[in-house]
Amino acid sequence: MSTANYGDIIEVTAPADFHVHLRDGELSRLVTPHVHKGGFYLAYVMPNLVPPITTTEMAIEYKKRLKEYSGSSKVEFLMTLYLSDALHPNDVKNWKAAGIVGVKSYPRGVTTNSDEGIESYDKYDELFKAMEVHGIVLNLHGEIPSDHSKNICVLNAEERFLPVLANLANKYPKLRIVLEHATTAAAINAVKVCGDNVACTITAHHLSLTVDDWAGQSFHFCKPVAKFPDDRRALQEAIKSGNKKFFLGSDSAPHPSLSKSTATSTSGCAAGVYTSPILLPLVAHLLDSFGAIDRLADFTSNFGRGFYQIPADSDAPKVFVEKVQGVSVQAEYSSEGKTVVPFWANRQIEWQIVNIKE
């Protein structure tokens, strides 16, 4: 079926979110349980804390905290390291045993907590070669910093990055590379023409938003920003086509509500859209809206697990979602003085989780 009727139920085995921000401290205590609340059993965790996660020891300790906060022993946390000079090729062979699956690249200054990001990939040649050997994934935030002298800004920063993606894919053909949170038709096309070592995550919110939705609406503002209607359509068509290169990475990025809603004359609001607590129903709603509900299991589990070579066990949890008349999204979530506002707060979603078999 391409669209669903009310009462239809779809089963997804062990939904997997291959890009999520779970923060630290009290904010992490609040949002980490929302991975399971949103229907997911695998969280691929971003390393851009302050300070960033750059060592095996830091990743192990962070994972320990996340498991403590999770509220479900069934959720699997896959850890990443922040690409920086602190990473050494000789250490790569030990990463998988420590639960480290990937390395995340942030161009300097383009998004939240990216001040320690990179300026050039050339010096990481030996690191990338070691990652090829040991099966560690390279995750790319696919933008270059704004440079007005070169006519580069948030609207074309992703497209200007794409030659870098092509170069890395050709230079390291055995290195699995993920272009994270694509927002443009150009990015979709670039991933399609790369070899099988390149895949791409797509967020739920970029399937919904365009420029008009975040211009003047801080709770829809994220990096990379949503682009034009034709770009949104290209993301939707990539999923609808069933191309296994494209799978879910929510980029769910919580910020305290005050930092999302407030800008000053010298600083903007925080960049990030928070989808974790409603993620599987939201994705079902969106895919159903453009005739791709039959791709739900592939997009939210099968394709990502296939690329990362992490198949679901035969006894893995199964989550069932049902199309309903409408469920209101909670206005906010609060704990210990921290408050976050989810995407589509107070709006209606036409899908809900009705059963989980663990």
UniProtKB/TrEMBL annotation:
GO terms under biological process: 'de novo' pyrimidine nucleobase biosynthetic process; pyrimidine nucleotide biosynthetic process
Zinc recorded as keyword: yes
UniProtKB keywords: Hydrolase, Metal-binding, Pyrimidine biosynthesis, Zinc
This enzyme's EC code(s): 3.5.2.3
Entry keyword annotation includes tRNA-binding: no
Gene Ontology terms, MF aspect: dihydroorotase activity; metal ion binding
Pathway noted in the entry: Pyrimidine metabolism; UMP biosynthesis via de novo pathway; (S)-dihydroorotate from bicarbonate: step 3/3
Record-given protein name: dihydroorotase
